[in-house]
Each structure stands twice: as structure tokens, then as C-alpha cells.
């Protein structure tokens, strides 16, 4: 089965109904998915923001977190990829936390799926084909 690296912008859509949820669920149903374990902190932060804005209750945020915990998402440790992420961040002038997903995709020779279309556009403007073609927009899985 094909494996993709996913970020929090995709995973949160598995458990919170929002634009892109259908595509995110299709991805989860039809493919294997992996992410650096940083994703848990990123999802937790997204849930906190949603609680703060009144979009979720604290109980709903906890339930959403438990659903992610019980999902088929395979987590990878950050230590083997963090130096590569730092190098990528400097090279493409982009935040290192996003570059952890890119570094994992490069290390495992996978493609990265994100709902962050501005990141996909940014990568597609790079001259290095290895990085330029690394990311796919979530909408491609709708």
C-alpha cells in the first residue's frame, strides 16, 4: 500500500469537520500514513485554539485527541530527522517544524500531503526537483 507523510493540517480534519475533511478521511481510508511525533503537539495546539475560540469544548478536544491516538497514524521519532529539518529550513527559508515533515518524507522516500496550499506552492517554485515535487495538496485526495 502507498504510504504518505501527513501533517497536522490533514490529521485534525479526520476528527474535526472542516473544509477538506472528506479528502483527509479518504487519504486515511485508502493509504498508510506516517508523521513525525511532533504532530501530536501540533494537533494539541490546534485543539487548544479551537477550544479558546469556542469551536470545540474541552471534552470534544479530548475526544478528538483520543480518536487520533487510536487512528492508523504511524509516528516516527524526530531525532533521526531533526538535523535534516534544520538544514531544509535554512535552505528553503521556511519554519523548521514544517520541515520535519519534509525531512521525514525525504528520509523515507515518500510524498508529503498537506492542506497548507501555500507551502505546496512555495515548494513547487524551488529549483531542486527532489524538494519541488515532494508535497501534494490534500485536495488531490478528494
Characterization of the model:
The chain has 142 residues and is α/β, with parallel strands linked by helices. The protein has a single domain (3-141), classed as Rossmann fold (3-Layer(aba) Sandwich), CATH 3.40.50. It has eight helices and five strands. It has helices at residues 8-15, 21-30, 38-52, 58-69, 82-92, 96-108, 117-124, 129-132; strands at 3-6, 32-36, 74-76, 111-114, 135-137. It has a five-stranded parallel beta sheet, with helices on both faces. Helix 3 packs antiparallel against helix 4 (58-69). The longest helix is centred in the N-terminal third of the chain and has 15 residues, at 38-52. The mean pLDDT is 96.
Quick overview of this protein structure:
The chain has 142 residues and is of the alpha/beta class.
Keyphrases for this structure?
Rossmann fold, 57% helix, five-stranded parallel beta sheet, 142 residues, alpha/beta, 8 helices
* CATH superfamily heading: 5'-nuclease
Shape: globular
The CATH class is Alpha Beta
As residue ranges, the low-confidence spans are none
- Our measurement of the CA-to-CA distance between the termini, rounded to an integer number of angstroms, reads 18 Å
The number of domains: 1
Strand order of the largest sheet: 3-2-1-4-5
Count of helical stretches: 8
| Percent of residues in beta strands | 5-15%
Mean pLDDT: 96
